[in-house]
Amino acid sequence: MKINVNNVSLKISAGHPSQFVRTPLPQIAFSGRSNVGKSSLINTLLNRKSMARVSSSPGKTITINFYDVDSKLYLVDLPGYGYAKRTLEDKKKWSMLVDGYFTSNPNLDLITLVCQLVDSRVGLTKDDCDMVSFLNEADIPYVIIATKTDKLNKTEREKAVKSLVSHPLLRPGTQIILFSSESKEGKNDVWDAITNSAN
Questions:
Q1: Pairing outcome for strands 142-147 and 111-119
Q2: Three-class SS of residue 74?
């Protein structure tokens, strides 16, 4: 699949499941805790600086953003989870939206991949494990993207990879992609995973 990443637009910021896009295109969702680098990853993939808004206040935005990429697929930015200062009402809204995406999505069968982001310096948190458990139970394909790898030295990188590869919760053979929005490491690998899933 050839994709022109310069032909991209924000289709909608959905605050309610009724607003989810209905155009039958493959959807690649990006999941992760607040401040793990989802917006930076999406901007790197699309060669933009501010297509996806990088918030200075983690967990501030509770919408699902659908980016139309060359009318061939959607990159779907799910709201970040695990932000401690979020109110109970906001947490309920997050749960309603994300649960709705995976249950009430009119194109549920077109969610071809979830890119599950994990901070390479931290590893899988409890919230990450909860999300991966859900993906396992729902039989939704996913890859693990370990972000902020530019902040690790060689020994720390090896330790981070070993920890992820051996994690008992991940499906056997789960692809682990090391990524840095600073160095662009892993950008092509992420795109390969996306296009392979969408074909």
A1: parallel
A2: strand
Residue 25 CB neighbour total at 10 angstroms: 19
Q: What is the extent of the structural domain holding 170?
A: 8-198
> What's the CATH code of the domain at 174?
3.40.50.300
DSSP symbol at 19 = G
Contact 157, 148 (CB under 8 A): no
List the Cα angle 173/105/64 in 5-degree steps: 85
Render pLDDT for 31-74 as a digit per residue (tens, 0 to 9): 999 889 999 999 999 998 877 765 555 555 689 999 999 999 99
> Number of structural domains, the chain?
1
pTM for the full predicted model: 0.93
How far separated are the first and last CA of the chain, in Å rounded?
Answer: 7
Written as six digits, the tokens of 20 are 């989810």
Beta strands in the chain (DSSP E): 8-14, 27-31, 64-69, 73-77, 111-119, 142-147, 176-178
